[in-house]
Design brief:
24% of the residues lie in helices and 34% in strands. It is of the alpha/beta class.
């Protein structure tokens, strides 16, 4: 009996959705179209398509605590979270997930491979398509999902598939087609045999690894080495760094799918989008009478066809058309909708200039909660800190800074040297330079506090941990 195992690939960065998406807070972890993140929506879709089977997640090790927290918010547990020490594209990521699926479910494991950053409006239709793909996969087919196109799209690769497989909806893939120009895409739209390449797959775990051994033996060897030497770290499985970094980098399409003697496809018409740009979010959003999509504290006057998003303050637009305006705590993007694919060029420039606005937001996530910088000056910094119920920072001390904590919500349990005491709302405590300390949240609600650091050096690396 085959077991369909969801594999969620959560390793991307989404640079075209800067400044909201950052290297350490990528688009799949953002709530772009509602209250849940794209990753959380993917988890719920996978649960509907594969009831009773927890997903295997592959993610960047820097995102591990945010991924785990988003599962906790859903009150669901993954089967495993595999941590990539470096980006090596989708083929090595799927390979280590396949090895994990075989270990957990045996040789009958089928993989349902899902990128974490897609939008699919109709989860029921998607689940039906997955069921059809699983039937083909159980018969040994390597199956991809072809999105029924609704516009001439030049930003996606295509599949050409006309020959049916049996009496069901499955088709044989005749060709994988690179991103076309506009005229070619318009011809594809009316052909009836061309579909967008979704990057979602169903295939047997063992057969995939065998194909990888045949086409990319060095990649297969590195994946096995990384998985065999992986180590447990809390709720995570850390892939061996040396073995994984030694792997060639390639997509599953180029490494395997396009080199098979035969690949199958199941058509999917379920409101799919890969949310690859701000213009895609505009198209997916709820537009007002003037064609504007807005989120946050936004005022639009004489504005048409624009996407305006305010994260921290009022944003007003007057007399503009077809713009994208994104406000965050430390950066603002203003772009024409027709140029949003070039946002990644801004990210590339930030990298070249040695800046940090492409890496992280002012809010930084940790396993115990998060912190964000509020104000900073010479010899002082003010941070807003949130610690989730049951969360605790490590027992630590600092060479160069003192800390003054003011609790604004909840109750803190503070360890200060040999003493342990409670600090309630509107109360404060002071930790001098060199004092061993820890703060914990023993309550049932988030602990929120203001931390004022003072001293000659205020960097995050001035931490000597006594005990985690």
């Amino acid at each position: 009996m085959h077991t369909l195992v969801p594999v969620i690939l959560s390793g991307g960065s989404g640079s075209r959705l800067w400044p909201l998406s950052r290297d350490l807070y990528p688009k799949q972890l953002l709530a772009l179209l509602g209250d849940r993140s794209l990753l959380q929506d993917t988890v719920l879709r996978a649960a509907q398509a594969c009831p009773g089977t927890a997903p295997i997640v592959v993610c960047n090790e820097a995102h591990r605590f945010m991924v785990a927290e988003q599962f906790r918010e859903l009150e669901r547990a993954p089967a495993a979270i595999l941590l990539e020490p470096a980006a090596r594209n989708t083929a090595p990521a799927i390979a280590v997930a396949a090895l994990e699926a075989l270990r957990e479910h045996g040789p009958e494991a089928l993989l349902l491979v899902l990128p974490a950053d897609h939008v699919i409006r109709d989860a029921a239709v998607f689940a039906e398509a997955v069921g059809r793909a699983a039937e083909l996969g159980a018969g040994g087919e390597f199956v991809t999902f072809g999105i029924v196109p609704d516009r001439p799209e030049t930003g996606f690769g295509y599949l050409h598939a006309t020959e049916s497989i049996g009496s069901g909806p499955g088709r044989v893939v005749d060709a994988f087609v690179e991103k076309p120009d506009r005229a070619t895409a318009e011809g594809f739209l009316g052909s009836g045999g061309h579909f967008w390449n979704s990057g979602m797959f169903v295939f047997p775990a063992g057969a995939f690894l065998a194909a990888l051994e045949r086409f990319e033996p060095e990649m297969a060897r590195c994946a096995r080495g990384a998985h065999e030497a992986a180590g447990r770290d809390l709720d995570f499985l850390r892939l061996d760094r040396g073995a994984f970094e030694a792997s060639p980098s390639n997509s599953v399409d180029y490494a395997v799918m396009e080199r098979l003697d035969r690949a199958a496809m199941v058509p999917l018409d379920a409101g799919w989008d890969d949310v690859g740009s701000w213009s895609a979010l505009w198209a997916l959003g709820e537009q007002d009478a003037e064609g504007n999509v807005s989120q946050g504290d936004v005022i639009c006057e004489g504005t048409r066809g624009s996407y305006v998003r305010a994260e921290h303050r009022l944003v007003a637009t007057v007399g503009v058309e077809d713009l994208v305006v994104i406000e965050t705590a430390d950066a603002v993007l203003v772009a024409h909708k027709s140029a949003v694919q070039d946002v990644k060029r801004v990210v590339e420039r930030l990298k070249r200039d040695g800046r940090e606005e492409h890496v992280v937001h002012t809010r930084v996530f940790r396993p115990w909660g998060s912190y964000e910088s509020v104000a900073k000056g010479e010899r002082y910094e003010v941070k807003r800190i949130r610690i989730r119920p049951g969360g605790a920072q490590s027992l630590q001390w600092h060479h160069h800074r003192a800390e003054h904590w003011v609790v604004v919500r909840g109750t803190a349990r503070v360890t200060h040297g040999e003493r342990t005491y409670l600090v309630s709302e509107n109360e404060s405590t002071f930790i001098p330079v060199g004092a061993v300390h820890r703060i914990e949240n023993p309550g049932m609600v988030d602990l929120e506090m203001i931390e004022v650091r003072s001293g000659s050096y205020l960097g995050e690396d001035d931490i000597v941990r006594v005990d985690r």
